[in-house]
Amino acid sequence: MENIAPAKRALAVLDTPKPAEPLPARRISAKVRRGIEAMVTGDSKTIQDAAEKAGLSREHFTRELAKPHITEHLRQRVLKTLAIQAARAGAVKGELLDSQNEMVRDRASSFVLGLAGPRPRPHRPLPSISRSGPDT
Q1: Residue range 120-134, pLDDT digits in tens
Q2: 125 within a domain of the structure (yes/no)
Q3: Are 105 and 99 in contact (CB under 8 A)?
Q4: Count of domains in the chain?
Q5: CB 27 within 8 A of CB 69
Q6: Residue 34 contacts residue 74 (beta carbons within 8 Å)
Q7: Residue 40 falls within a domain, yes or no?
Q8: Ranges in the chain, pLDDT < 50
Q9: 24, 39, 107, 125: most buried, per Cβ within 10 A?
């Protein structure tokens, strides 16, 4: 067998620097945390309102929200809140299984079955028959 040198692009991998170590967690001020909490809990519907509740200007709060470590904190906070709300929503769906309304019970059971395993086929309306013919 011949000794063939590796391709240049294969050797280029050896020249690339090692990935940088993750940066240490950066500090997030208490005011920015208060503004984020107001947004996540729904106490504030706008960035302006959240900034006012936190005691910050809208411009400063917006600049802070653009920073990667603050964006990641906001994302983690939203995911945590959604996980808690998903548990509550599941309990509500369970309660709806005992509803007096048959349609509500049917939709709740279809939803729960869809989560538990194979999804039931949706009800399809029967095709309509048009009466626009010569006998009408």
Answers
A1: 566 677 666 666 655
A2: no
A3: yes
A4: 1
A5: no
A6: no
A7: yes
A8: none
A9: 39
Give the range of the structural domain holding residue 90, as residue numbers without chain letter: 27-116
- What are the tens digits of pLDDT across the range 32-44? 999 999 999 999 9
pLDDT digits (tens, 9 = 90+) for 44-54: 999 999 999 99
Q: Is residue 44 part of a domain?
A: yes
Looking at this protein, which amino acid is placed at residue 23? L
* CA count, 13 A, side-chain hemisphere, 44: 17
Q: What is each CA distance from 122 to 15, 37, 80, 107, 114, in whole angstroms?
A: 57, 40, 32, 10, 11
Residues 6 or more apart whose CB falls under 8 angstroms from that of 113 comprise 119, 120
For residue 48, the number of C-alpha atoms closer than 13 Å in the C-beta half-sphere is 0
In a domain, 16, yes or no: no
